[in-house]
Amino acid sequence: MSGTTRLFQRFLSLLGPKLVTTLLAVIATPVIVRLLGPADYGDYAVLLSIYSLYMIPISAAITEGVQKFVAEQRDDAAWVERVLQFYLLLALLLAIVGSGVLLAVTGLGVAERVGEGFTRYFYLLTGFVFVGQFRAFSMHSLLGFGLERVNGPLGVVKKFVTVAVGIGLVAGGFSVVGMLVGHIAANALTAIIAGVVIARRISLRELFRIPDSLPYREFLSFNGLNIVLVLLVMSLFHVDVIMVRTLVGDRATGYYKAALSLAEYIWIVPIVLQGLLLHSSSTLWSEDRYDELAALASRITRYTALLVVLMAIGLGTLADRVVPLYYGEPFAVATTPLLLLLPGAVGFAVARPLQAICQGSGRLRVLIAAVGVAAALNVGLNAALIPLFGMNGAATATSVAYGSMFVLLVWASRRLGYDPLVDLRAARIGLTAAAAAGVIVGTDRLIDGDILALGVVPVIGLAAFALLAIILGAIDTDEIVEILMKLPLPPRVTALLPG
């Protein structure tokens, strides 16, 4: 079985569960929004942003590191156990310190300065930090082992438990507290299950032996730089939400977060690719196979661009129907920030797989420089535009920063030694998008009923886009056949394919 085929199958192992997880999110989000209301949903969004940013120095020191180094083949027969031992001890230490600091800060009354009732929320965040650390360690360890078939379903379990417990408690009157308890329960359960799977694949005796030697300097160098990188990347996701809450208010934050959540649905496939390519590209980097890296990155970039452009056109066209139907009529004001966010979301979607491939090189300084420019642009533009234009200013600023990631990561890729644009076919993709947009928008205008439009427009849009992409050469028929041949189709269907 070729490396490309194995990679594709591992991609499918993650994609299926990711689609199920996204479906759960699609179903659960409007329920959560309606139960919480704009103000509490805004507070909940801010809490998740605070948690995500706070976890960076705690969790980023172990996640990509354990995933990368477990996947590598070293001469030491107990290499995997040594890596897991180092990162498990580091995870425990950072979890204790992180939880302790948050407890102390909360006890000093800092939480109440964020908003009314946040002291109670912060005490719950302390537990969330602790269990979230071990969920992150175990799930990334599974990826390092190449166990995408286990990691994917566990992601579904985590999402299901979160929304089931959370919605149940919110409906019972526990509001934001209920959602936080849902997160804690889901992370704890996922960590336990993943830990059992890992324990069955290793020697526990070797895990608890004192190692003779380990490349601590290599581990710590990668970890330290990765913390900086993740901090910069995560700031793109959360600084705008926190600034809107601080400068505009909780209701505006709820509307803005609703727009963000819809825009981020176009990242489904890029997120799966990003999770897969970090450890998958490490082997190519270690063997200096730059031509294969360029070919892999170029094809992934083109396919990702085609997919997310189609999704963005469809979502943008149907936005005025989708937003009020999905979130409720009061959230119709989120339509404008959604439209402003979509162009940048496309750029960031195409950039996400490139980020993982660059990380796989282990040379993070160039990547940090590129992402640092985007992060600085994000903070500066949000600070300038939010006071003037509120959540629409935040959407514009964030969209520009998101879009810059593609340009900056192409630059970083070339500095590292491979070109991800050797077969991009940008002009053909642009022509395909423009022609398909005419069909999609025209179809939408011909249909009055919202529900009917949501059923008809995506089908016609997909057919038109696919046909145009083939006619204009954005994708070749041979490539489509190659992809179909790798899918787990029934033998009768496969037999009908040429070649």
Automatic annotation (TrEMBL):
<dbReference type="Pfam" id="PF01943">
    <property type="entry name" value="Polysacc_synt"/>
</dbReference>
<keyword id="KW-1003">Cell membrane</keyword>
<feature type="transmembrane region" description="Helical">
    <location>
        <begin position="121"/>
        <end position="144"/>
    </location>
</feature>
<feature type="transmembrane region" description="Helical">
    <location>
        <begin position="395"/>
        <end position="414"/>
    </location>
</feature>
<feature type="transmembrane region" description="Helical">
    <location>
        <begin position="220"/>
        <end position="239"/>
    </location>
</feature>
<feature type="transmembrane region" description="Helical">
    <location>
        <begin position="12"/>
        <end position="32"/>
    </location>
</feature>
<protein>
    <submittedName>
        <fullName>Flippase</fullName>
    </submittedName>
</protein>
<dbReference type="GO" id="GO:0005886">
    <property type="term" value="C:plasma membrane"/>
</dbReference>
<feature type="transmembrane region" description="Helical">
    <location>
        <begin position="426"/>
        <end position="447"/>
    </location>
</feature>
<keyword id="KW-0812">Transmembrane</keyword>
<feature type="transmembrane region" description="Helical">
    <location>
        <begin position="259"/>
        <end position="279"/>
    </location>
</feature>
<feature type="transmembrane region" description="Helical">
    <location>
        <begin position="453"/>
        <end position="475"/>
    </location>
</feature>
<feature type="transmembrane region" description="Helical">
    <location>
        <begin position="86"/>
        <end position="109"/>
    </location>
</feature>
<feature type="transmembrane region" description="Helical">
    <location>
        <begin position="180"/>
        <end position="199"/>
    </location>
</feature>
<keyword id="KW-0472">Membrane</keyword>
<feature type="transmembrane region" description="Helical">
    <location>
        <begin position="331"/>
        <end position="354"/>
    </location>
</feature>
<dbReference type="InterPro" id="IPR002797">
    <property type="entry name" value="Polysacc_synth"/>
</dbReference>
<feature type="transmembrane region" description="Helical">
    <location>
        <begin position="44"/>
        <end position="66"/>
    </location>
</feature>
<dbReference type="InterPro" id="IPR050833">
    <property type="entry name" value="Poly_Biosynth_Transport"/>
</dbReference>
<keyword id="KW-1133">Transmembrane helix</keyword>
<feature type="transmembrane region" description="Helical">
    <location>
        <begin position="156"/>
        <end position="174"/>
    </location>
</feature>
<feature type="transmembrane region" description="Helical">
    <location>
        <begin position="300"/>
        <end position="319"/>
    </location>
</feature>
<feature type="transmembrane region" description="Helical">
    <location>
        <begin position="366"/>
        <end position="389"/>
    </location>
</feature>
